[in-house]
Design goal:
- The chain is built from 8 helices and 16 strands.
- The chain has helices at about 15-20, 25-35, 55, 65-75, 120-125, 150-160, 175-190, 240-250, and strands at about 1-10, 40, 60, 80, 85-90, 90-100, 105-110, 135, 140-145, 165-170, 195-200, 200-205, 210, 215, 220-225, 230-240.
- Strands 1, 2, 3, 4, 5, 6, 7 and 16 form an 8-stranded mixed β-sheet that branches. Strands 8-9-10-11-14-15 form a 6-stranded mixed β-sheet, with helices on one face. The chain has a two-stranded antiparallel sheet with strand order 12-13.
- Helix 6 (about 150-160) links the parallel strand 9 and strand 10.
- The longest helix has 15 residues, at about 175-190.
- The radius of gyration is 17 Å and the shape is globular.
- The structure holds 2-oxoglutaric acid (AKG).
- 2-oxoglutaric acid binds near residues 119, 146, 171 and 173.
- It comes from Lentilactobacillus diolivorans.
- Belongs to the carbon-nitrogen hydrolase superfamily. NIT1/NIT2 family.
- GO terms for molecular function: hydrolase activity.
Length: about 260
């Protein structure tokens, strides 16, 4: 199946949800003009890592985010992968992904499973526990968030249910962009899957963020890699390439789960 994917590589206004919300519709509109089937945003785009102010600025129950993404998906007739946002839920804060289909209906929710201590997520956020699976044009896909890509066992778990695309919104600092690119390629190769990753650009008070949003095929080839400036780019992938890779080398069938822990 051919799927056109827009990568919306944004800068993020630190702790300013109103300004950040205003960036979303122009990007979705541009993706629709480029005939995208799906557009994806970076991690925690509503607030950035303004963690100490989450009580004020995290989205209660994700209501504002969900309403916006649902409306835009329907208005522009494409799937909107909402990157992730800071959400206040049940007395805690979560780093949460919402995905909406062209009919405006919610396809998936995902809460970041591996909290990133170097950016103090473990002090301010609660971790998710659930897998997420959804379909785009009938193709199975899954999605994780940023630091999660350092845990191959988690991405393998998510890939076992026939997933063909792994989406990865991120706020990945500039200093580790070489690792970002290698990790994304490795996750694509070992899961014989496409990987579609969108990082933010710009700075917050603690870090510069390096962009280099990219798309990787099941061989780990970098089909697209952006630079470190805000931009939206669209690429078409053919998910049948995952059948070719899995047919040629049956990595999933050759697993020995009884030996793993
Ligand atoms: O793993 C890394 O080097 C960066 C992870 C990160 O920035 C995040 O999870 O927000």
């Amino acid at each position: 199946m051919k799927i056109s994917i827009s990568l919306a590589q944004l800068d993020i206004y630190f702790g300013d949800p109103d300004k950040n919300f205003a960036q979303i519709e122009p990007a979705v509109k541009m993706a629709a003009e480029q005939h995208a089937d799906i557009v994806i945003f970076p991690e925690m785009w509503n607030t950035g890592y303004d963690l100490t102010r989450f009580g004020e600025i995290a989205d209660p129950e994700g209501k504002r985010t969900k309403a916006l993404l649902s409306n835009l998906a329907k208005k522009y007739q494409l799937t909107v992968h909402g990157g992730s946002v800071a959400v206040a839920r049940d007395g805690a804060f979560y780093n949460t992904t919402y995905i909406f289909g062209p009919d405006g209906k919610q396809l998936a929710t995902y809460e970041k499973v591996h909290l990133f201590g170097l950016m103090r997520e473990d002090k301010y956020l609660a971790a998710g526990h659930e897998e997420d699976h959804f379909q785009i044009k009938g193709v199975d896909a899954t999605s994780v968030i940023c630091y999660d890509i350092r845990f191959p066992e988690w991405l393998r778990t998510l890939s076992l249910d026939n997933s063909r695309i792994i989406f990865v919104p991120a706020e990945w600092p500039t200093s580790r962009i070489p690792q970002w690119r290698r990790l994304l390629a490795a996750r694509a190769i070992e899961n014989q899957s496409f990987v579609v990753a969108v990082n933010r650009v710009g700075n917050d008070p603690d870090n510069p963020f390096g962009g280099h949003s990219g798309v990787y095929n099941p061989m780990g080839d970098e089909l697209l890699s952006l630079d470190d400036q805000p931009q939206l780019k669209t690429i078409t992938i053919d998910t049948d390439e995952t059948d070719d890779a899995r047919g040629f080398m049956p990595v999933f069938a050759d697993r020995r789960p009884e030996l793993y822990r």
